[in-house]
Amino acid sequence: MNIVAKSDLNFQGKALVPVSNITGIWLTSSDLAKALQYSNSRAVTMIYNKYADEFTNGMTQVLEVSTSGNYRKKLRVFSLRGAHLIAMFARTPVAKEFRRWVLDILDREVQHSPIVKQLTDQELCDLAWLWRAGAVMNEACREIYPLLRVAEHREAGRFYSIGQEYPRTLNKAREILKRETAHIEFQPRRDDNWSRVLPHLRQEVLQ
User: What pTM value is reported for the model?
Assistant: First the structure.
C-alpha cells in the first residue's frame, strides 16, 4: 500500500524521500533527523537503540544498499508507524507536530486501504485489558501449581498446563495489541485505563 504521493511527504518545507525498491513508505534515519530538527542521524539511532524492543518488523528494518565505489552498507529505515514511534521519544520542539503530520498520512493510507481499521480506541483498550487479565491469571496459575502438586490436588495437572501452554498465545496477542495501539500516547500522570494498561502491554513478555 502506497497511496500517498511523494509530493505529499513534505514536513514544514522539508522534503522527505521514501526509500525506493521497497513496498510502502519507508524513511531513512537521516530524513527523520532532518524533520525532527536533529543535527544528524545519530540522534535517531540513539533513540532506536534505547527503545529497540518497542519496534516491530513492520516499523523498522535494515537494508543493504550500494554506495559509490560499489561498496555495500547497511541502512536502517522506518515505516510511518516507526517514524511516529521515533517522534514519540523525541524531545525536539517540532516532535509533537511531526507526530500529527505522520498520523494524518497514516489516516489517508488507511482510508484508501481495502482493509479498514475495524476497532475503535476504546475497543482496543478493552482488548488490552482482556490481555492483561489473561496474563495475570496465567501468572497466578503458575504460582499456585506447586502448592497443588504438593497437596496432590486433582486439578494440579490442569493448572500446570495453563501455566505452560498459554504464555505463547498471550505473547502473540500482546504483540498484535502493541502494534495496533502504537498511536496511543502514554500519559504517565493521568489516571485512566490507557495509562494503567500501556506500561504492561509495552514491557511485559511472559516466560
Answer: 0.52
